[in-house]
Amino acid sequence: MVIVPIYKSAEQLATVDAAVAPIVEQLKKLGITVKYDNADNKRPGFKFADYELKGVPVRLVLGARDLENGTVEVMRRDTLEKETRSLEGIVEYVQQLLDEIQANIFEKAKSFRDAHIYECDNYEEFKQRVKDGGFFLCHWDGTAETEAQIKADTQATIRCVPFGVEQTPGVDMVSGKPSVARVLIARSY
């Protein structure tokens, strides 16, 4: 996470620095990586865009006016929502927010993965569909020759024998030989 101060004078910066120091210390004690970017060589908007591109999950923005009001602006990267929070309890809030962001991003990635897994038993159909991406659950006879042919024909490779998928015997879609399990096959991007 990053904390960016907003200030117009060295006096305001010193005030913000003093207020932010204990917050940074408490966050670090919780094992949270924190950068306090009080460098004066870039404008705040540039810093915001830069940290967004870097993937920083939480940004706190604090200025002299915020200190007077006892508030801080919190921006979360996963939903791009901004909110103004009280400075009191901000450390606990950030910790909770980071856990929430992690769960949100994980669920989003898992849903995307699950929506792009397809069963396929026909090699001609597989060769057409693999061009559009995704992961394909296909029977495999376990031989290196079959794996090499799939790679030569489609540039796709076997990724893994997946857990959590009911494995039933079948027929390899390339060789026609018996197969004991399905594997995930995909192209790299």
Helical segment tally?
A: 6
Instruction: Give the end-to-end Cα distance, rounded to a whole number of Å.
Output: 29 Å
Assign the CATH topology of the largest domain: Rossmann fold
Radius of gyration: 26 Å
What characteristics describe this protein?
2 domains, 11 strands, Rossmann fold, 189 residues, Translation Initiation Factor IF3, 6 helices, alpha/beta
Description:
The protein is α/β, with parallel strands linked by helices and 189 residues long. It folds into 2 domains: 111 residues, Rossmann fold (3-Layer(aba) Sandwich); 71 residues, Translation Initiation Factor IF3 (2-Layer Sandwich), CATH 3.30.110.30. 43% of the residues lie in helices and 26% in strands. The strands form 3 sheets. Strands 2-1-3-4-5 form a 5-stranded mixed β-sheet, sandwiched between helices. A 4-stranded mixed β-sheet has the order 6-7-11-8. The protein has a two-stranded antiparallel ribbon with strand order 9-10. A hairpin with a 4-residue loop joins strand 4 and strand 5. It is elongated, with a radius of gyration of 26 Å. The mean pLDDT is 93.
Brief account:
The chain is of the alpha/beta class. The protein has six helices and eleven strands.
Topology:
Layout: E1 2-6, H1 10-29, E2 35-36, H2 44-54, E3 58-63, H3 64-69, E4 71-76, E5 81-86, H4 90-115, E6 117-119, H5 123-129, E7 135-140, H6 144-154, E8 156-160, E9 170-171, E10 178-179, E11 181-187
Parallel strand pairs: 1-2, 1-3, 6-7
Antiparallel strand pairs: 3-4, 4-5, 7-11, 8-11, 9-10
